[in-house]
């Protein structure tokens, strides 16, 4: 999401319109995980609840050769990291340009996106700020209307623009509105140069918009018309539509879409379409255990994963019809997934722990020293590098408070995905970690190291700049860099 280097990064970001009414602060979240309910139209809950099924799917380059030199170079990327900068999304003068009370209050950061030399930070209130890493100053707030609540961000690398998805008080926060603005115009603080997208679509609850980076497509659902539509992410042109005839959910994989229909007591009908033109590729039925709820159905290339309550995980090859079952004792329902398509692996998150599996149902890696801080496994606190070699997360720290109780301060841990080893971390008890001195002597960082690592609510790694950005519950964004 941050530039050409991540051209192969797969990001599925779904934002669903909420029910009519409310104050806008209780917001449905995107698949990238902004902390709200992500509507899923299945007749059974998927992975406990829709809010927990926030996920980021990676389809990147093949892993680079992991020779001794390459492996040794990885920790060097994070050596001598310092706290370089601090940005604040809160503005004492917010009342001058917004009229909603919750937009005027300090609010936690729920999403960070970096594009070129600009950092975008979205607060839970719906206020979104852009900061320049060239001047280290705030460029602007992206809320154009006094009653606009921004719900999610998406960096479109195809045309170097930022898409914002918003709701408005004037509409009782019930309809999603999308807008695209070129990064260059944001840099110049010329936000009026942007323009609205998908104006023909009525994205009221339970409608949604989903951005698919790998296939270069946008999927919308208009509940009013009962139609799914697919658009080109490069120029936003309409490609084709899919009637909502008993379709309960659509899952997107590289090159294909999986349509999940209303289940019967004994099976669920499934259809695979070409993502390019919507033409049917395969129609089949997957047998189910009667009376058992569906925990999840997921499609990853030719592999279909189906898990029912208190039943084994089934991995079906839709080409060969080969079926593999993994016992419930070995594979328990996770709270979230991250999929590494090119490596034919996937990560599971359960009870703050991370594991790597292959599609034969074998556990590949268990991680050491990588106990996640947040129970809900929000993928906004997790980053997978483009080479699929590292996972960077906000984790529980080994340090204890002065009174012997568990520390309220976490650490940023970088772990090798293939070995599970922790190769580097940013921790408050690291004596080498410091606040970078200012060249002009003027203070720009008011937080201490421990304060900057306390209650981190969003995390992003800019691979081009080799910088980690964290946001916390105070609405502050911190820049960690060597």
SS summary, helix count: 3
Assign an overall shape. Answer: globular
CA distance, first residue to last residue: 22 Å
Give the strand line-up of the largest sheet: 1-12-13-14-15
- pLDDT averaged residue by residue: 81
- Poorly predicted runs are 1-12, 18-70
Fraction of residues in helices?
under 10%
- Proportion in β-strands: 35-45%
Described by strand count, sense and barrel closure, the largest sheet is: 5 strands, antiparallel
Query: C-alpha Rg, in Å?
Result: 22 Å
| Total beta-strand segments | 34
Structural class category: mainly beta
Descriptive overview:
The protein has 482 residues and is mainly β. The chain is 4% helix and 41% strand. It is built from three helices and 34 strands. It has helices at 68-77, 183-187, 449-452, and strands spanning 12-16, 56-58, 82-88, 109-115, 118-123, 128-132, 138-141, 148-156, 161-168, 177-182, 195-197, 208-212, 217-222, 227-232, 238-243, 247-253, 256-261, 267-274, 280-287, 294-300, 303-308, 313-317, 323-326, 336-340, 345-350, 353-358, 363-366, 382-384, 390-395, 411-416, 422-426, 456-462, 467-472, 476-481. The strands form eight sheets. A five-stranded antiparallel beta sheet has the order 1-12-13-14-15, with no helix packed on it. A five-stranded mixed beta sheet has the order 2-24-25-26-27, with no helix packed on it. Strands 3-34-33-32 form a four-stranded antiparallel beta sheet, with no helix packed on it. It is globular, with a radius of gyration of 22 Å. The two termini are 22 Å apart. The model is unreliable at 1-12 and 18-70 (pLDDT under 50). This is Transducin/WD40 repeat-like superfamily protein. InterPro entries: DUF7899, WD40/YVTN_repeat-like_dom_sf. Residues 1-43 are annotated as: Disordered. Residues 7-19 have a biased composition (Basic residues). It comes from Triticum urartu (Red wild einkorn).
